[in-house]
Design brief:
- There is one protein chain.
- With 137 residues, the chain is an alpha+beta fold.
- The protein has a single domain, classed as Gamma-glutamyl cyclotransferase-like (Hypothetical upf0131 protein ytfp).
- The chain has three helices and six strands; from the N terminus they run E-H-E-E-H-E-E-E-H.
- Strands 1, 2, 3, 4, 5 and 6 form a six-stranded antiparallel sheet that branches.
- The longest helix is centred in the C-terminal third of the chain and has 15 residues.
- 26% of the residues are buried.
Length: 137
């Protein structure tokens, strides 16, 4: 079992449960050295290396192997899983895996920061209808 740092749609407990096929508790966490950017024409973000960057997200612990298989299919070829260090809300640093945009797809990433509150307001429903990762499950 491993730990997942989620920074986009998987921050939503309902989406995470649907994709992972399990119910997992989570805590707030921060990833340094990366930025969360918009993907051109999409409602989901991409995580890109950025030395001064800082991304707020959530940490899911004890993610079972069966969930990782589903998560990998859901994320697809645009993302690669990478081991990172996350600072959780009590200041502890924990290793976690996260999905970083594969270098081959950087041309699809916008320079604008992705906003979770905006996603909840206007993008979540469209994301759930349109994201092709759902069809891979």
């Amino acid at each position: 079992m491993k730990t997942l740092f989620a920074y986009g749609s998987l921050m939503c407990k309902d989406i995470m449960q649907e994709i992972s096929a399990c119910s997992l508790s989570h805590v707030a966490g921060t990833l340094k050295g990366y930025s969360r950017r918009c993907v051109k024409g999409e409602h989901y973000p991409a995580l890109v290396p950025d030395a001064p960057g800082r991304v707020e997200g959530v940490v899911y612990r004890n993610v079972p192997d069966s969930a990782w298989k589903r998560l990998d299919r859901f994320e697809g070829e645009m993302y690669e899983r990478r081991l990172v260090e996350i600072e959780i809300n009590d200041g502890t640093i924990v290793p976690a895996e996260t999905y970083v945009v594969h270098p081959e797809f950087l041309n699809r990433v916008d320079s604008a920061d992705w906003d979770f509150a905006d996603f909840l307001r206007s993008g979540k429903a469209l994301f759930k209808q349109q994201y092709k990762g759902y069809r891979k499950l």
